[in-house]
Each structure stands twice: as structure tokens, then as C-alpha cells.
Amino acid sequence: MTQTIAIEIDTRPSTYLSSREFTGHLLDRQLHRPLFREDALSLVPDLLSVHDKIDDRAWVFRLADDATWGTGDPVTADDVAKRLFRIAQQPRGSWIAALIKRCDVLDGRTLKVTTRQRIAILDRALANPTLAPRRRKHSSGAYALSWVRENRATLVPRDGNSDVIELVTTSSRAEGRRRFLSGTLDIGWGIGVPPKFWDQDDPGPFLATPGLDMFVILAAGPGVPQEAANRILDSIGLDRNAPAGIEPTVSRFSSYPFTPGKNAEKSTLPAGRWPLFYTEFPPNRETAVQLARASDKRLVPTPVSYSTMLAGPPKAGFSLQIHATQFPDTLGLQVESLLIARGSIPAPDALKEVASSLWEMESDTARRECARAAEISLDQTLRRRVIGRLRPRFRSRSPINMPRSGWFDFKQLTKGNCST
Where in the chain are all domains bearing CATH 3.90.76.10? Predict the structure, then answer.
């Protein structure tokens, strides 16, 4: 007999059903069969498998024989090609447009993808859940969307045997904690939680979750003069007294503490004040206040709605952003390097060459070392800087296999385990 597992989530269905941010990607992972997926620390075929690698720019993929829509119709290579084309036409898919030159449907189950430059990790790049093909009102994944209300969505398993999943939007993590402790929630949302959730007297229980590839970024809008942007970004950061839930670091690849740069003296900071835009998800407010203090009040904490931030941060100021990986690899944190390599983002020739070479490297170690070496130059070009790593804090009574992307598989959950 199937039961219902209630999972807290921090956005409404109107947001996560649009596939524009992390919670949308997590839902995509359940409803739409991913092209490739994470399995522990490795990448495995799912809807697609690599059939042949003709050369460094041409890959042939085969579709899984058992891939079907809810109607029973097979998922086809044409479905995959159409989805990739559609995403490449959207602003959020600009990195896909810079990656893929063309898709050729060889037959109903075979697809040839040609890239714009030599790519060593195309299969990993295709593991982003939003790239999975879809049809209106039909699912190809493990779950189908049953019904949606303002603050709830229900996912029913296509196999008819697994437990039903109910996504419950709460008004705050504090409400989520109360519901979890009362037994009406089985999993409490763990990304962006109040600092007090890290207090020793909080009963939990919490998942022993490894660090996710999710970072706090301070970015300068295009309306900020270049010199002012450079001085602010170079001069302020989070120290060891950062809000609980954020690990201060200036790198995506190592736990480097913040060290003020050459413009560290407050007397050298530019005159004037700029808004520091942030959304109300914790611990953004606490982080914005600390940055404002570090800037000698040059930055003025200014809350904006989540929808405003998703549409594009306001231009006339700085913004506090959360950047999550776009696919399970080092380069999932630096997809803009493709746009630099292609010339879509102006950059020095030396940086273009490095950005291009990143995508050609077969060795995971070499790729990571090169990405770390290029990180500062890339971020300077993009007028941003890492200030910390977001630490997850999910409430659960049973273990969950949580990959570094955070896109965990709901199929591993059972009501019995969650209630233990």
C-alpha cells in the first residue's frame, strides 16, 4: 500500500514548475527522465548513453529502449533534439547555445550532437535536469505531476509501487521545523535556513550531508562604474564570524579564507553608496548586513522579491546571489567560460584561450586545477566574487543519498524510513 511522504520546499509551485532555479531543477529530476544522472560520485547513462565519440566535436548518443511517456509512447531522439534547441534559444540556456552547434536525428533512437569546439565532458554537461525532453501534461520520469495548488504539489509514482510525494511550501523554515517536529512533514527543507538552526539545542535530526556545489556570490550590476566595482569586490568579504550556514571562502574549489586585497583600506573605498540587493531567504539578510558593515556602509542592504532576482538582478547596485552548479563537474560552476571562449562576453585573448582549453581537458584533476587557476580572472571579467559556500541543513529521520548538485532522487525515499 502506497503512502505519502511530505517534503518541505521553500518556493511556490509557480516558481519551481518553471525550471528556472534550483528547486525547479530538483523537480525536473523527478518528472523528466534525465539524459545522464549522478550515481554517488560518478555519472551514469539514463535516457541517453554514449554510443560513439566520432571525434572531439561529434558525439553519437542512443536512447534507452525502455524510455516512454506517460501515454506509453516512446521518447524519441527528436524529442531530445527539440528540447536542446528550445533551451538554447532562452537566456538561461546561452551556455548550451555556446556548447552545441547542431543536433542531427539519425533515427528514432539515435542522436548525433556536434559541438562548437572540442569538448571532453559533453555527457556531463547534458546531465542538467532542465535538458530532459518533455511533453505537456506527460512525464517520462519516475513521477507524474498529479495536482497543484497554491502551496502544494503532488507527485505520483509511475510504477504504482513507490510512495506518493507531496511538496509543501511553508511560509518560513521556522514553520517547517514546527511541522516536522509535529510529524506532518517527513523532510524539512535544508537550503537557506536561519542561523539559529545551527544552534546546539536544535533537536534536528539533520542529514549528514556533504557540501553542495552551491555558493554565495557578490556581484556588481552594470550600472556600477568599473573602478567602484573593483574596489568594493576587492575590499570586502565574510570573515570567520559569518552567519551560521555559510562557510566563508573566496573560491569554489578550496576553502580559501577572505584576505582583503590592495584596496582594503576603507579610506580607499569609492565615495557614494550603492544598494545591496538580496532576497529574504535566510541567511541572506544577515549576510547583507555583515557586508554592509565591512564596506563602511557603502553598501545598503535592500530586499527584493525572489521573482525580481530570477528575472535579473537590478542593474544599479550590487546583488547577493546563490550560484548552484549547472551540471555535475567542476565546469558546472563556470559555464560562463564557454561564453568567454566563444567571444559572447568580452575578455582578454589570454583568458579566452584558457576558457576554451578548460573544456578540452580529459583529466578531472587537470580540469579542476586549471579552473581554480582561472577563477579570479573569470570572476573579475564577470564583475563578481565568491564570498562563501552555502551549507545544507535538511531535517530527516533517515539517510538520503544527496549528490553534490543537490538533485537527489525521490525514489530512494520510503514512508517507513522517513518516519523512523
Answer: 33-131
Q: What angle do CA 307, 309, 315 make, to 5 degrees?
A: 135
CA distances 391 to 54, 173, 320, Å, are 41, 15, 16
DSSP string, 360-373: T---HHHHHHHHHH
Contacts 24+ apart (CB under 8 A), 72-76: 74/108, 75/33, 75/47, 75/133, 75/140, 76/105, 76/108, 76/109
Find out whether 106 and 133 touch, Cβ atoms under 8 Å. Answer: no
Task: Enumerate residues 6+ apart whose C-beta is below 8 A from 285.
Answer: 278, 301, 303
Q: Say how far apart CA 273 and CA 276 lie, in whole Å.
A: 9
Per-residue pLDDT of the chain (420 residues; tens, 9 = 90+): 789 999 999 999 999 998 889 999 999 999 999 999 998 778 999 999 999 999 989 999 999 999 999 999 999 999 999 999 999 999 999 999 999 999 999 999 999 999 999 999 999 999 999 999 999 889 999 999 999 999 999 999 999 889 999 999 999 999 999 999 999 999 999 999 999 999 988 989 999 877 899 999 999 999 999 999 999 999 889 988 899 999 999 999 988 777 765 445 554 667 789 999 999 999 999 999 999 999 989 999 999 999 999 998 899 999 999 999 999 999 999 999 999 999 999 999 999 999 999 999 999 999 999 999 999 999 999 999 999 999 999 999 999 999 999 999 999 999 887 866
Q: Is the pTM of this model over 0.85?
A: yes
- Asked if the 33-131 domain carries CATH number 3.40.250.10, the reply is no
Pairing of the two strands 318-324 and 274-278: parallel
Amino acid, single-letter form, for residue 47: L
Nearest partner of 11 among 246, 192, 278, judged by Cα: 192
Rg of the chain over CA atoms, in angstroms?
22
Q: Which of 156, 155, 132 is nearest to 28 (CA)?
A: 132
| CATH 3.10.105.10 intervals, the chain | 214-390
Beta bridge partners of 319: 219, 277
Looking at domain 214-390, its CATH class is: alpha beta
Closest CA to 339 of 352, 329, 323, 326: 352
Instruction: At 235, list the grid cell.
Output: 575590499
